[in-house]
Amino acid sequence: MESVFGQLKNNRGFRRFLLRGMGKVTLEVGWLLLAHNLLKQATVDQKHKAALLQIREKRYFAHFLWF
């Protein structure tokens, strides 16, 4: 979990909470972690999409050579 906060501080520039109070800070942390997880998922999806595209290109090329 510490690496997540390090990434938020270093990569996203998060240094302090904008809101005060335990409930509001909890909500703000929730939004930050949600954004972090969505960015991670987008990266995984993009890599997965690129891998599928390469597989399709190889199949198309192999099919093209077959005929």
Structure notes:
- This protein is mainly α.
- The chain has one domain.
- The protein is 84% helix and 0% strand.
List the topology elements.
Layout: H1 2-12, H2 22-66
Derived from helix and strand composition plus strand pairing, the structural class reads mainly alpha
- Mean pLDDT over the residues: 84
Give the topology string: H per helix, E per strand: HH
Main pleated-sheet profile? none
What is the radius of gyration computed over CA atoms, rounded to a whole number of angstroms? 21 Å
Number of domains: 1
Principal-axis shape equals elongated
Tally of alpha and pi helices: 2
Poorly predicted tracts of residues: none
**Percent range for β-strand residues:** under 5%
Distance between the termini: 54 Å
Instruction: Report the strand count.
Output: 0
Question: Helicity range of the residues?
Answer: over 70%
Top keywords for this entry?
2 helices; about 70 residues
Nutshell version of this structure?
The protein is an all-alpha fold. Helices cover 84% and strands 0% of the residues.
